[in-house]
Amino acid sequence: SGVRRVLCLGDSFTFARGLAIDRNYCALLAPLAAERAAGVVVEPINYAHEGYSTAHEVRMLENKGGLELAPDVIVLGYVL
């Protein structure tokens, strides 16, 4: 209770190869929320995968447990 779960889907940009796990934009949601809204706790979950398209990401939600995590928000990030 009191925790907002944010599930991030996306391509290599969201996956963020080469960055420390706590430096990708999905991970940075938690401290940003803490700064902007007192008492809001965000649990970010990065479900991104390099090379994935939106069709792959839908299958991740349906078949790999994404919806079972009961996210409050789903963020879809991609770069053209």
Describe this structure in words.
The model has no long low-confidence stretch (mean pLDDT 88). It is built from three helices and three strands, in the order βααβαβ. It is of the alpha/beta class and 80 residues long. Helices cover 28% and strands 24% of the residues.
Outline the fold blueprint.
Elements: E1 3-10, H1 12-15, H2 29-36, E2 41-46, H3 54-63, E3 73-77
Parallel strand pairs: 1-2, 1-3
How is this structure best summarized?
With 80 residues, this protein is of the alpha/beta class. 28% of the residues lie in helices and 24% in strands.
Q: What keywords describe this structure?
A:
3 strands, alpha/beta, 28% helix, 80 residues
Distance between the termini: 37 Å
Major β-sheet profile: 3 strands, parallel
Total DSSP E strands: 3
- Low-confidence runs: none
Overall shape:
globular
| Beta strand % | 15-25%
Mean pLDDT: 88
Helix content: 25-40%
What's the SSE pattern? EHHEHE
Structural class label: alpha/beta
Helices, by number, come to 3
Sequence of strands across the biggest β-sheet: 2-1-3
Radius of gyration: 13 Å
